[in-house]
Write a structure and sequence with these properties.
This protein is α+β, with helices and mostly antiparallel strands. The protein has seven helices and 17 strands. The longest helix is centred in the C-terminal third of the chain and has 21 residues.
Amino acid sequence: MKLWASALLTLAVATSTNASSLFDIQGLAIGQASDVNGLTGVTVLRFDKGATAGVDVRGAAPGTRETDLLKPENLVDKVHAIVLSGGSAFGLDSMSGVVKYLEEQKIGFDTGVAYVPIVTGAVLFDLGLGDAKARPDLAMGYAAAKGANRDAMQEGNVGAGTGASVGKIAGMSRATKSGIGRYSVTLDNGLVVGAVVAVNAWGDVVDGKQTIAGTRSEDGKTFISGTDLIMAGANAEGFAGRNTTIGAIVTNAKLTKSQALKLAQMGHDGYARAIRPVHSMYDGDTLFAAGTGEIEVSNINSVGVIAAEVVEQAIYRAVQHAQAAGGLPAASDLTD
């Protein structure tokens, strides 16, 4: 009880809870590139001075790059970019573009003979919306890395969220357009905890018992519960890896690799609160966590509680800011 009471007290003294305070994290810049016709894109979180990172993969069909090096027992303890990309496995190519740009800027691990940028990331499957031949490639990853800034980050149908959708239990034709969202909390002591999440779930996005984006009725005009369909005996539609929610928790806290891993693990609670069902055989749900080391923290549990909250809110913002595309309506089209 004391642990949770302490965490809730910490939340109570937050000075701000919004999207823009992400850039109170001094070591973070964000860039995005989008193909609005092909409906795919890439989002790059740059850490030019490096950030300690961890990752937790809960879905059964992930597509990732360089996640093994984030394990606490492995040598490398800093990453220079986390990439969230559309394009399924093809989107992994975009991360090579991020590496190329960072090397040109002499950002990376200095080996004495070359700078080697440490770039990790994950992809989501958006080939079922828009043009399946449109994929985030090296050039798109390069452009997103080059365009990274500390001024603004758009939400909705941009970056890794350009071709995202949710609620595919009854098939793609009854899904809802989704996108990418962000949310952050700033405490009185200067600690910032934020999240960026691209929501491309097989399941529905829910707030409590209310579906706010997801599986639509046969006439397409209202939301119905995909979970109820499954419990009533509906055959699940899809195949492994066709969905996936990917995201990153970012904080200015000083973290060890083990603490970054724990933060990613606790952050998945935000996935579970906001997406139902989640972590299925059809999803490759992946969540990174990175700390830039500006603020000392004494209670990683409290940071983890906040992390789950900001992940949940980022998911809601992803569907709230999405717009109709690829023949799918957005949540706002059904709730207005």
